[in-house]
Amino acid sequence: MNPHQKVYKLASLFLQYPQEEINEILPDVKAEIATIENQTIHAYLTSFLYYWESTPFDVLCEKYVNTFDYHGVTTLYLTYNVFKDSRERGEALVKLREIFTDSDLITETDELPDYLPMIFEFLSAADNKYVQRVLKLHLNSIMKVNKDLAENDSDYHFLLKATIETSYELMKNAKVS
């Protein structure tokens, strides 16, 4: 797994509702983070892990719900931030589903295709051409979620900052090649 795939995979894992089982794999997570050469990304992920490890599990769950659910700080459904429940949102969801289908990656879930953990999971496994397409469509929305999280002092913004930094690297490398 290359560095960008690791970052997206970790973000996908930690942006889902907290599971106690994650604590069992933290040594492996730390080992993966240690292999990331970009010091900025490394620092963001390490900062998030500090938050995760230093926060009691019930508080992690409560903060997650207050951040992402029940009219929290933001939503993890990227197109909702832009279109709310309009027809344009439906069209954006269809476009995203088409990218997923074209990639031949299996996405078995009850979630809408704009669910951020699912998008990050996709980015961790898809071919670069599909990664580029998704980032061109949704990087601004990811940046908006990050802005909302940072303005509300949510430690989840460290995950988004890591993915944004990774995305910039990928986009820059794509333009150079």
UniProtKB/TrEMBL annotation:
It holds the Pfam family Nitrate_red_del. It comes from the Bacteria. Keywords: Nitrate assimilation. Signal peptide: none annotated. SUPFAM superfamilies: TorD-like. InterPro entries: DMSO/NO3_reduct_chaperone (IPR020945), NO3_reductase_chaperone_NarJ (IPR003765), TorD-like_sf (IPR036411). The keyword Transport does not apply. GO terms for biological process: chaperone-mediated protein complex assembly; nitrate assimilation. One of its GO terms (molecular function) is metallochaperone activity. This is Nitrate reductase molybdenum cofactor assembly chaperone. It comes from Virgibacillus indicus. The lineage of its organism: Bacteria, Bacillati, Bacillota, Bacilli, Bacillales.
